[in-house]
Known about the structure:
CATH topology: Phosphatase 2c, domain 1
Order of helices and strands: EEHHEEEEHEEEHHHEHE
Structural class: alpha+beta
Number of strands: 11
Radius of gyration: 20 Å
Helix content: 25-40%
Number of domains: 1
Mean pLDDT: 71
Strand content: 15-25%
Low-confidence stretches: 1-30, 165-169, 269-291
Largest sheet: 7 strands, mixed
Distance between the termini: 6 Å
CATH architecture: 4-Layer Sandwich
CATH class: Alpha Beta
Amino acid sequence: MFLVEYCSELAILSFWPNKSGSLSLLDSGPYATFVGVYDGHDGPETSRYINDHLFQHLKRFAAEQNSMSVDVIRKAFQATEEGFLSLIASQWLTKPQMSSVGSCCLVEVICDGTLYVANLGDSWAILGRLVKATGEVLALQLSAEHNAIIESVRQELHSMHPDDPQIVVLKHNGSIVDLYLKNVEFNKEPLYAKFRLQEPFKRPILSADPSISVHELEPHDQFLILASDGLWEHLSNQEAVDIVQNSSHKEQGMDMLSGKSMCIVARLSQHFVQHNEELLWCYTLFSNGTN
């Protein structure tokens, strides 16, 4: 079961550099768009925490730097991870199961014509790009997938943990929290036995450092699809793009895709056609951690 939450505090994100370089939700000034897909596992706590805190951290760091950047996004991920780690540590003796919850996290930020895509886990983002010569809309994958079925990810896990031949049984190599796989002190009693590893690990098994890509948007970039792994298990990148492109309305295409997964379809044309529209809707999706 997946939950969809439209948060009023996330609905509008507008960057307005005043004299102090602060970032605020004003009705004027250059705009930005924030979209997140948070696919939780073993419980809803992590995805809910990300939903409540990641955007706020992003605003804070953007205000400090008076800009949007890869560094701002990376700091927002780190602050979100550290905040939930502290919460879990404080509840370890009474709620040890909290150390086993986690969430994949896919975030898109568009600011001043620049698209940032940050990813941890097996969700990913696809750009639908128009080829003017043929009229086709082709799929361009924007985010790196952290899934252990991919050979490069398996090799990375092996290189990081050469003493653990079973390391690649993990589904992915990145997430927010999953503390029991990042700190050996939380991989013991009173944690449930099914989560405890037989051998102690010497270094974190999962990473909380997202892969971040940056793209300058162009007028022939048509739309962006962000989806959890459920969609990509059933459709190729191009098949998903074709469904959206061939629908009479992009919303119809989104409905067709979202039946298979957590999915967002965002039309990029607004960033080039509607220059005078300062406000842009923004929302997040997150799962409750069950399949």
